[in-house]
Amino acid sequence: MACSSLRLSFKLNLSSFLANKHKSSVNKTCFIHSNVLKTDYRKIIDPKYNKGTAFTHKERQILNIIGLYPSCQRTEEEQLYAVYTNFKAKKTSIDRYIYLRSLRARQERLYYRFVIERIEDVMPIVYTPTVGTVCQQFSQLYYTSMGLYVSKYDKGYMTHVLNNWPEVDIRAVCVTDGERILGLGDLGANGMGISVGKLDLYTALGKIPPQYLLPVVLDVGTNNQQLLCDPMYIGVREERCRGQEYDDLVHEFVESVVKTFGVQTLIHFEDFATPNAFRFIKKYKNDYCCINDDIQGTASCGLGGFLAVEHITRKPLNEHIIMFVGAGSAALGIGKLLVKELISRKMNVEDAVRNVYFIDVDGIITKSRQKFVIPDLKQFAKDMPPEKSLEKLVDTLKPSILVGATGQGGIFTENIIRSMAKNHKHPAILACSNPTHKAECTAEQAYNFTEGRALFASGSPFPPVVVGGKRITPTQANNAFAFPGVALGTLCTKPHTITDDVFLVTAHAIAEYAREFQPNDNVLYPPVKEAANVAFRVGVAVAKHVIQSGAATIYPIPKDIVKHIKDYQYFTDVGTALPSVWPYPEMTRFPMPKTNE
Ligand SMILES: O=C([O-])CC(=O)C(=O)O
Ligand SMILES: [Mg+2]
């Protein structure tokens, strides 16, 4: 009934508007109207402002777009319902990804509202694991740029290239050179998918307005032979440039970002190969506002999980035996932050590293190693005979926390997991590698081989597992709990640099949230549906820390930091957002057609 009367009034409005329009006898006015129609339509199709069928009749009148949309007028909730129905109807994850990208290209706010409201369904699509497959197929799926491609051939002109991006006010740049995309290796320029995915979470979780964000691929070639031979490959079809030439390109890029968008622009390095990742963050972190998510974001997420283990097992962290399998950016990042945490508890370095072991492809890292690709690894080297077998090492060293960051799916075997279960009531197993098939073990294996006692978390999501009649929902150990909040806290306070302390603060905020949210559960992280609240908690903690440490450059310093952050955040309610951001005041100069409203 309500629906039909609504339809009737819409009909009346429409016909009276049309009648008025036809009555107009001044040709000049008609001429202006038709011109306006054309210009307005171009404005309307800007995805930032487009409301699609949610434009009200009145808005359609003002904007001269009557007839350009079907006559139904949907509420945003109805639009979301339509989007969800379409999303669910897609048969594959890739199809869902493509559908969502096309939605974003049409109606940005609706897209973000959908992602925010359906984060559990959507995060596995726009982020790991689907984004991994997307990157592998990116050249085939390519239909529009999505971000900025800066190539080695832009050397000397990078500022110009950055200036070509249509938005002027850029506050964060996520850049990858595509050499280590998730655990999938070198995907060259196809890595754009990862920069886009990370920044999508800036908005979906950190609620950072998307117009401030710029995804970038720094295309320096690829050593992926398959891509080099692929006629559809979108990137520079050459071997990667290395050495000084490569470093100079990265340096020009960093400098150009600052020159183009300002010194407080957050530069987020993502999925660079490990030695480069460490080299660049060391080189730039004291002079630029930058983070390496794979090292620092993962570190705070990992340490957050360790703090949860400490809480659940009621055993101090330094008494745990911690074994990192994999010695790349993720593992070493967590190890280093762990040491920082223990030092902050008045422990010396020797005591802090005593129970921390690293294992790489050549076995346990011992003092007899001649060469450390990453010098920071040396502090964890042990005075013991070399050993390659992971099973033997787990048997003899009896780790209570086992962290996998190897990119080698399945290397936590049944024997390894059972051995941990034998020695500990709640063995902690973090299978951090992404995407899903690269996880060191599955949730099912971790829970089944420990009678459900494991404190398990993984980088990519796993479905719930039933063990002994009990349903256990695994949590995700993913830097998505860290970087959106770090970015939020940083962008709201504008420090010139981001210190390591920020990541300690982040780890504690994540652990604190998990404790508060599930005080009685043996889980390491909050559920994904809480990820936006975690980002907010982290954002507030980081902002407070930046202000207290005197590094904030916003003046006056806000008294109410929570309000300050909330004011900054993006809101997706199109109905209320439109008037305040509507950028074309000149349109109000044209008289509004009379209606019966
Ligand atoms: O993107 C993710 O899911 C986590 C991450 O940074 C990586 O695996 O490189
Ligand atoms: Mg990464």
TrEMBL record:
Domain Malic enzyme N-terminal: 104-285
Single GO BP term: malate metabolic process
Binding site for a divalent metal cation: E270, D271, D294
Lineage top rank: taxon: Eukaryota
Entry GO CC: mitochondrion
Cofactor(s) annotated in UniProt: Mg(2+); Mn(2+)
Binding sites annotated in the UniProt record for (S)-malate: R180, N434, N478
Keywords: Metal-binding
Nucleotide-binding keyword on record: no
InterPro entries per the UniProt record, alphabetical: Aminoacid_DH-like_N_sf (IPR046346), Malic_N_dom (IPR012301), Malic_N_dom_sf (IPR037062), Malic_NAD-bd (IPR012302), Malic_OxRdtase (IPR001891), NAD(P)-bd_dom_sf (IPR036291)
Presence of the UniProt keyword Metal-binding in the record: yes
Cofactor note: Divalent metal cations. Prefers magnesium or manganese.
GO molecular function: malate dehydrogenase (decarboxylating) (NADP+) activity; metal ion binding; NAD binding
Occurrences of domain Malic enzyme NAD-binding (ranges): 295-547
Active-site residues, record numbering mapped to chain: Y127, K198
Protein family: Belongs to the malic enzymes family.
Official protein name in the record: NADP-dependent malic enzyme-like
Organism the protein comes from: Drosophila hydei
Gene that this sequence comes from: LOC111594119
